[in-house]
Fold each of these.
Amino acid sequence: MKSLSRRAFLSTAVRSTAVTAAAFMIPSIVDAAIKKEKSAHKSEKKIQLKQNAVVLLQGDSITDYGRRREVTTFNSPEALGYGYASRIASALVLNHAALAPRIYNRGVSGDKVYQLRDRWQTDCYDLQPDVLSILIGVNDFWHAIDGHYDGTPEVYRRDYLALMEQTRNKLPNTQVIICEPYAINGVKAVTDAWYPQFDEIRAAAREVADQYADVFVPFQTVFDQALEVAPASYWTGDGVHANLAGSQLMAQAWLEATGL
Amino acid sequence: MKSLSRRAFLSTAVRSTAVTAAAFMIPSIVDAAIKKEKSAHKSEKKIQLKQNAVVLLQGDSITDYGRRREVTTFNSPEALGYGYASRIASALVLNHAALAPRIYNRGVSGDKVYQLRDRWQTDCYDLQPDVLSILIGVNDFWHAIDGHYDGTPEVYRRDYLALMEQTRNKLPNTQVIICEPYAINGVKAVTDAWYPQFDEIRAAAREVADQYADVFVPFQTVFDQALEVAPASYWTGDGVHANLAGSQLMAQAWLEATGL
């Protein structure tokens, strides 16, 4: 061990005492992935937070990731689970401390779109989100390929479009983030048998985002880029569920894509 | 809701596919706190990670924060708990993906220094950490002021110096990070009765760091700065335990102070 040293900070430090909404200098893999997204529109509309903005993160087990269901308060670490939702939340509450955003995780393991729909009153509308983020789709495919569900990518597309049409009517002022369903081939649950049909799920999510979202988060591209840095097993244990590194990667991509 | 927009990324993006160990542009409160630390030494020695570096985060409940004790593997979200340790870990595994660091949390709720000592063989030496981070001290004070413990700041100082002397002998090549015990006055458990004696705990930790650490993380200064942005209750529920925002604040400060 060596004697103590103090680290002199970079001279570019911001002096104001207010916490600016400065973007993290994200790892280059996230950067490369977001850049790959062609801008279909010239506007750079990002997500805006107001004071005490309610941010709702919705989806399946990737979002859920062990959250304590009985804890319903916002910004509770236990209620946010162990995945990307928790890591987005902690970044938001720090980086936007002056606005004191309120983040909820209402992901439910195993969900497909129609199951979101069935609980949407309680788990979306009643929370009156200012910002709504959804990651759904892998189960619409996975449960079907495993023979537990008779849906198809077309059913997913139709269900999702209908859900967002209804959501837009009920929450006209809510900003929407649609996240791309992703899969990492060659790890446990995900095999070549998933392709090319899984790409139809991804395309459907993109179509839903084109019509209803302010921001689309290209998770598949992000993971594809990540594979250039570390192998698939570094990011996921089963090809579907992001692990610690994968979750942080997703959170960083979400924050970058939303401008938050 | 509005039509889809894609966010064009900043032109300063790094183009290489390797993940650089680029520092986050941390919120200005962390920055201000780290800058306040006078550099006693000219060197800017930071923490260096080697391939598969073992990083051990030790301490009390602030570190522990509900980790699943039965899960002993590295980089497991459940084993890392809900606090700053988990948020340091996810940042490290993403930002240093090419090095694949292995992070363990062995914080134990309620611990004082002598209790670390009593379990140090299993919970430190046996893990052979390349990087060892310790946050301990609040209980050495809190349990005493509550009448459950008869130690004093001098006992804490003596215990800690002895622990680190032994640690240095057993782990001569391990890089050490000593974190400053902190308290946020006026919230629940922390009152004016804590002062000025609690500052003796802080001073003792700093003295231990001067002799044995590569990096000292000034958590008290960080929280003091944070109060300029949001009130105490935003960062902690009881003045001792950082909540979601407080944990993220601590993690960012740690990452900045260590250069990781």
Amino acid sequence: MILHPAFAVEPWSLRETHLDLEILDQTESLFTLANGHIGLRGNLDEGEPAGLPGTYLAGFYEERPMPYAEAGYGYPEASQTVVNVTNGKIIRLLVDDEPLDLRLGELRSHERELDLRAGVLRRAAHWRSPVGKEVRVSSVRLVSLVQRAVAAIAYEVEAVDEHVRVVLQSELVTNEPLPHVGNDPRAGASVEAPLVSEQFIDHDLRAVLVHRTRQSGLRMATAMDHIIEGPPGTDHEGECYEDTARLTITSELGPGERLRVVKFLAYGWSQRRSTAALRDQVAAALSEALHTGWDGLVAGQRAHLDDFWERADVEIEGDAELQQAARFALFHTLQAGLRGEKRAIAAKGLTGPGYDGHAFWDTETFVLPVLTYTAPDAARDALSWRHATLDLARDRAKLLGLEGAAFPWRTIDGAECSGYWPAGTAAFHIAADIADAVGRYQAAHEDEAFERDVGLELLVETARLWRSLGHHDSAGRFRIDGVTGPDEYSALADNNVYTNLMAQRNLLLAADAVARHTDRAAELDVDAEEAASWRDAAQAMLIPYDEGRGVHPQAEGFTEHQPWDFEATRPDQYPLLLHFTYFDLYRKQVVKQADLVLALFTRGDAFSAEEKAANFAYYEALTVRDSSLSACTQAVIAAEVGHVELAYDYFGEASLMDLDDLEHNTRDGLHIASLAGAWIVAVAGFGGMRDFEGKLTFAPRLPQRLNRLAFGVSFRGRRLRVEVTHKEARYSLRKGSAIEIAHHGETLKVTTKRPVTRSIPKISAGEEPQQPHGRSPERRRPS
Amino acid sequence: MILHPAFAVEPWSLRETHLDLEILDQTESLFTLANGHIGLRGNLDEGEPAGLPGTYLAGFYEERPMPYAEAGYGYPEASQTVVNVTNGKIIRLLVDDEPLDLRLGELRSHERELDLRAGVLRRAAHWRSPVGKEVRVSSVRLVSLVQRAVAAIAYEVEAVDEHVRVVLQSELVTNEPLPHVGNDPRAGASVEAPLVSEQFIDHDLRAVLVHRTRQSGLRMATAMDHIIEGPPGTDHEGECYEDTARLTITSELGPGERLRVVKFLAYGWSQRRSTAALRDQVAAALSEALHTGWDGLVAGQRAHLDDFWERADVEIEGDAELQQAARFALFHTLQAGLRGEKRAIAAKGLTGPGYDGHAFWDTETFVLPVLTYTAPDAARDALSWRHATLDLARDRAKLLGLEGAAFPWRTIDGAECSGYWPAGTAAFHIAADIADAVGRYQAAHEDEAFERDVGLELLVETARLWRSLGHHDSAGRFRIDGVTGPDEYSALADNNVYTNLMAQRNLLLAADAVARHTDRAAELDVDAEEAASWRDAAQAMLIPYDEGRGVHPQAEGFTEHQPWDFEATRPDQYPLLLHFTYFDLYRKQVVKQADLVLALFTRGDAFSAEEKAANFAYYEALTVRDSSLSACTQAVIAAEVGHVELAYDYFGEASLMDLDDLEHNTRDGLHIASLAGAWIVAVAGFGGMRDFEGKLTFAPRLPQRLNRLAFGVSFRGRRLRVEVTHKEARYSLRKGSAIEIAHHGETLKVTTKRPVTRSIPKISAGEEPQQPHGRSPERRRPS
């Protein structure tokens, strides 16, 4: 696990057995606790040393101007950057006047553990101060999955063999200085001292700080309260300033004696609510947390996760690392989305400032399929967030001369924040990705209220977008010209196959939804004529095909372009975008991330098996995977066309993206979509699950090294469990009425009483496709 | 002339008969004097009021950082901006303590005249001060076409009816504050106080200021000297500071008495020379100017222009406005290029800060054809400037992963300054435009030394660029993918016809030149194999054709795109780029400026007459002329395909671009390429001149309103004069040995002794093509 000797391979936790400051900033990302609303990076309790201090609130951002060397009409003028908000994690310790600092003195032991079942981060340290005083320190940190506004830390210090004086400072710190971020465009911009104090109050063990941002005008509040247990004579004192609140606890500990402090934190933010209202809101959340108490919070956490794992656990036998990685991935996917409640799920979740805290299409395309089948409410809420931004998207469409809604390529609050339109605004497929996620959630959960209030309007407005974005040519074909598909090494091409196929689905989903809700559709001014025009466009959609090569070009003309010279490209020249111009990349056959191959997955219903095999082989030879969004899709299609061992290699890459820091930027936050991708490989790859037309079908097949794979799917009130071995697959219903599914093309009926077992047919795949020179995935298959 | 009652229509001058401060900044551009090295905007002598003060030196710039909202590999980090250098034009006058300011007191008369034969700007004013003192002021200003570093002003003030005390302050002023430029991307960025003083000296009537720029590290010097003639008692005193030198002349004038001051100015700049060297350089230039004297400078100016007009005058009978406009255009084209001497000819010449003072492809495509046939040395020098930047262009090619030389889209010193690569770096046709200009100059003047030292290397390095930029597809066709053609409302398309045809010529020109200079070619490492590969690529060049529509698509796929909705576009939404996104424009059929139609002109040898007619009609309906580089080309092809009256309308537009301020930005400087285009319409449009394969051919045909057109062409040491009436054309050789030309397909031999006259055949053109709704040119044809 994480290519570092400090990490242990364990099924239900990520455990670091000793501290290595060299990888501190990566581990801060890995050890992040979050609930979709609050995110606390795994910074050390005492604040220093720190790689990148980070405390985030979903949707809370500062604005910064976007400069252009040459301006253009419709370019966004301001971007949004996630703010490192008031840090409530800090608990500093002084032992006989020496500050606990792991860089000083002697660290006799240090362990951190992210417990995936308990949902807490535990830490235990045994430290000898520079003057020889020894203490044992332990902390348990949680961000509540139940009480959305609440986090808590139980902190203990114990004198080992001598009497010690200890001073413990529990703090709230605003506007922490952040390290410089460097020039990697994937990192985020940091805003210096973004928060202006509005109010600060303390009383006894409690303190509240209220701040607002300078430009975006958002307001936030943080509050802390404490329970102190220490030997007699333990004392405390509070103080509070604009950017700092501090509770100082002093105590004297004999050998074996302990000081224990439970720190409760509450966070809130609002665009509209007043200082007083927000202050009171966090105070109330804090009171509720105190009422629940530490043990109650811990128990709630466990109960929530027990239920989650029961529904959603992915069991992998035969590869302990990937077992760990799969659960780690699912845990972080849950943390990113769970209590988002109409805020965006960012590419990095709440684990770091990478990509400025923006949300992209990753959310709908990679994260929401996972949440749809494992934590449906989170999927619903994320789509409700998109719905809440419809006015901004309609304005943007208008600006672009289009009908309906044009959703932003990257954003926090719904406004377009892309400063490079060929790889931003032009990537209109995001509209269809959102519609696809709506359709998937709706088909999987038959959520009538959602469809009427949220889904229908999203489908209608995106269908309108496509209808106005495309046009019928003189031969009657519906063309979508000059857009950018998922592959960011191509841009502004005509009739991108992924885009056109996804738009086709979007148009049909919308027309179907309108037919189901004619009354509500009428309120949205959709009539039968309009819906018919969507069906017509979908029907006439142009899907280019290269007869000569027997493959689909990614977009018109693509297969005619010059192939990239992979032989002449050195390993240190990847990712290519940092070493070659867009000009060079765009005009040649080189693929950053699955594009046509993603269409083979998401629109697998539109391709024959032969087409899939031919297309996969063709694009496999061109795809360099300079994006973390590629390996999982390649794995899924590799598995489908029979290259299960190749799929297994890709499974490793997708699952270990952050645990092995494969892209060298885990420091900036976790790649949530790639983590979600690990689930996708397990379920859609080796489980072969597809959900076309709202039907669940499976075509499981394991790679050699795995003995068993099991996963759970929540579907229309049911809990389906799928267990796969090399020989057979077993489908069992843990909850709900009978369900019809398919296994390798055979329709089956599964009930809670009658699990169904079927054997797995052999597949004969052709020759294994080749990747570009030097770009094969790390071999994980047995040799 | 200039749609303003102050302007008179005269054949040899631009005369403003009274002052209108509303149009002061446009007139400053129109009244600019320049010699390709120094440019003095037509600012009033007294400095204020001013629209936009401007004094420029070709090639002298300051650097400024280029910001990007999202950075990319290979993006230029710094841009270059023309600097408003030390203003030597200023001569302030006080009359009985009242400053002469045309906004105060009473302006009884005011006239300015740009004399196109004398090459001077004359001014005469009769002013009554607020307290009632009257003076007559006159000035004559010139920028020497003979002495490159020199400008001069003869200034006179005369007391009218009362005794007056006059104080005259002749100044050099550095770092003048400039007005804010607004947000039009076509205007230039202004740099505040760009110059740092290095030395300032004055002695008696002379003063020198030496400065350097802060970032680019360029050094410049300005010097002034004076001759004073006034009544007895006239006195003077000099003073000098870092950014100001001032000679104050005091005098008392009785009625009818005059004070006359001749101010001599010298300018110089260098990247390498020391402060002392530069100071001495301008002092020497000044001494030479004093030695020549005012009358000598005026005589030299006249002699130079007499010779020029004798060679190059365009006579237009039947439309006095266009006669004036044509000469005005030719005069400014000459002023932009004449003494450039290995500096770039900027898009605005030296008339204003528009486009940051950058040079584009306009120079080679529009300006150099004119200079090649009217002032060949200037064309040679401009190409020598390109040659001098080859190292930068080779570096750029390397960065882009290409062979040979990639010339910048916009630049002052040769470094790429484009901050938006899809409409900058991707417009590789500039390489072929340069090669075309080399080929044209070489064919027209058989300049052996130029070809060996300059032309060959430019051809070789651009051919190498094309060979590496394109590739052979599986069918053996040579494709050039993902580039931007001349039309800036399309970008990044495959096989742009203009680009491919021009690249084809480039490859062949290079192969031919290599064959003529095998020894020199060997020094450039060109062997027969390489030259053969250029011929192969040229031979295999893919030229897409739309069989269904019977036209050439501008680039592959273009004719399949959605047509722009011109009916729905309001007049105030032009230029479209200020009201619609690039996204919207790029993906639809809408053309900013002649692109395929430009290919019909420059590669007219590659199209049949039928193809030209069909293509012209097709693109005419899509071309909105949001660029000043379009009307002239449309005029030329309109004339060729027989729509002579439409050509005439376009002639008006091209010729009056600045005189009528058609694009509302004449303030920022003149559109030199459009002015050159006026000559192109006359000569290539109504004269039907073509120069394919180095042969001059003519196919003259006049629009109804013109009675006679005559123009001169310098060609291989000869001076050919062409005179055209409705009935016939007369070709006469004023100088040089016999020449073979063609008239409407008939080959003719013309000698100095034997002019040849031929009648003009009738042409039957089809229906007149339609322009987009509301975008027809102003009707100039008789109704």
